[in-house]
Amino acid sequence: MFTGIVEELGEIVAIEHLGDASRFQVRGPVVTEGAKHGDSIAVNGVCLTVVDITEDAEGTRFSADVMAETLNRSSLSALDIGSRVNLERPMALGGRLGGHIVQGHVDGTGTIVDRKLSEHWEIVKISLPAELSRYVVEKGSITVDGISLTVVDAGPDHFTVSLIPTTLALTTLGVKQAGDPVNLEVDVLAKYVERLLGRDNGTQEKEITA
Questions:
Q1: Are 27 and 125 in contact (CB under 8 A)?
Q2: Are 107 and 188 in contact (CB under 8 A)?
Q3: Model confidence over 120-163: pLDDT tens digits?
Q4: For a tag on the chain, would you pick the N or C end, based on fewer CB atoms within 10 A?
């Protein structure tokens, strides 16, 4: 489990295409400290498994295999060598939940529609797949490229977020522009509530007609 609090900006240093999968090499000295084979690291909000860790003159990097399903459902397929990525290690047991509960399971992708600069922050409008709009509410939480953010405005096909200077400086949202894709993960609690309410309704209907 992650919290959506980005630990560092990493960099894609190599991509090996393997037919129905790809192997990414990502430089990230902070998230690789103490990491080992089999550990999880979120890359732009996608939970990936560490294959190996290597060091060179420019720092520590880790490799991760990305299957076709992940490439098709996320914006990782748009990454290239030199792309900057948001990196986060799983939350340690007993650690503080600084953002919200993030699984690292991308629900879909959106696109940055517009950016409006204010004096001390920036308002970013992001498109939203119609099937995800019911999980996004004003003042609720959403994960954008692995960043835990609070929704300012929620529409049928978009939402807006306010980015403070720290978020702009320390994450990829500081440099992404209109037209760039982003990974979206809605609040998992909303999905569980929807499923449970659906089951309760179905149970009640059966009891009434019995």
A1: no
A2: no
A3: 889 999 999 999 999 999 999 999 999 999 999 999 999 999 99
A4: C
